[in-house]
Amino acid sequence: MKRLLLILTLILAVLPVRADHIRVRLFSTNSISTLNISFDLGNYNLYADNDTLLEDMVGEGRSVLIRAQKNGLHVSVNEDDYGTFKKVRLVATDTACIICLNPEGCKQRTYEGNLEITPLAGNKLLLVGDVEFETYIAGVVQSEIYGQQSDIFRIQAIISRTWALRNLNKHSADGYNFCDGVHCQAYLNRCIRPDIMLGVIQSSGETLVDSSGNLIETPFHSNSGGQTANSEDVWRTALPYLRSVEDTFSFNMRQSDWVKTINMDRWLNYFAKTHKLNTSDSTVRDSLLHFYQPVRQARILGVPLTRVRLDWQLKSTFFSVSVDSASNSVILNGHGYGHGVGLSQEGCIRMVTLGITYDSILRHYYTGARLHHDPSVGSHYVENYTAQLSRIIEEDSQRSTQVRSKKDDWLGRLFRIRDREEREEIYIEEEQDNEQDWQYEW
Q1: Where are the domains of the chain?
Q2: Which terminal CB of the chain, N or C, has fewer other CB atoms within 10 Å?
């Protein structure tokens, strides 16, 4: 128990690197007018407008309902109606707090940290979470990549951390640092997997820098299709560390290949009307109907393939075109998924399974970049709590088929241990309440 308390304390106190708390817009791609808030762990204080305390120590068994109205935000807690306000904040009373967000029409999510709610035009809600930086990174890693080995998550944590530190002011004009969608980085839930957190912790203090020691841009995508793209072929700016490289590791993965069939006349008319190509010319027509990319190209007859991908909603720009005369169609045989610049996530997954070291993988995808270790993050801390998390993962593997309470996950256990020790209570796992209404398959 003491060891588990130590790991929690170290995670919360040591992991933040060059950033403390950040603000993230949640449900940024959804239009929300009603939000129900419940509480998985710990207590929150509920404030309105200029820090007027509406209710303190709101926790389990309580439900905050917020509705957008023309004159502001209508707030109620269980059966208590508090009225209408311009801003509402839920502030965690300590770090051991988990909030559950249930917007009408959206899938439920849980997050650590504080929450601020303000009105948007059209009777909608703006939700902004205030969260510790490394807690955010762990949630991003869980949202952005799949896999089992900790090095997969370590690599994703390094590039996500590097991107976040370089782009801290991306949404500063909007009142927050990042959104939770692909415009920034996906952040769709708090991290609930100890194996993912293990990789994040192993990456503590690690970022990617150029030869001058400056943080680099670290774009990533699902699958390169066998070759990554130069940055200037997608975003016009040539960066020395974002060079096209051969990537056979991305072959034979989930997103390696795709096929799309398009009516031939529609295909030709698109280039004639949108890009003013003379498709009655046999040479132009033949080039459009028999386009071949043995290696990545940036254009087809001068038309940017990025524009073609966007207009036709293709998985990638890495495709070839052939004709099916019987159906009067063109067949696009494509490779990969995403913009193709930087790290291929599925290539990374394959490389890790082959035993290639995480730093070699990063150097493969980011040409000439080097790994920087923040000296303020001591290796003895990392070694200590990676050992403890490895133990938790092993314990979980022994009961992987059991149905357990939603709060009976690794982070919840650590939080409850700390809370009870602060109150000088004894934590006995076998005597905890059996919360049937929260059960789910682990």
Answers
A1: 1-214+369-442, 257-335
A2: N
